Inverse folding.
């Protein structure tokens, strides 16, 4: 118990589930199918994103919206 008389809460952490083998297999599949490959003959407009999205591990705030508008 902590000094306030309450039981201290200890959250359980999730087990890590990232498997590098899964990533390797998916990346190979994407390469074989031409996913994310630039296709000039597609006729679609070309664009680039010059700024990264906000960090996914922090809360989004209004300042992020003003930065990219």
């Amino acid at each position: 118990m902590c000094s306030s008389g309450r039981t201290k809460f200890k959250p359980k952490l999730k087990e890590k589930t990232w498997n590098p083998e899964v990533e390797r297999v998916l990346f190979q599949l994407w390469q074989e199918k031409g996913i994310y490959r630039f296709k000039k003959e597609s006729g679609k407009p070309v664009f680039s994103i010059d700024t990264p999205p906000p960090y996914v591990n922090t809360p989004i705030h209004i300042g992020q919206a003003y930065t990219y508008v």
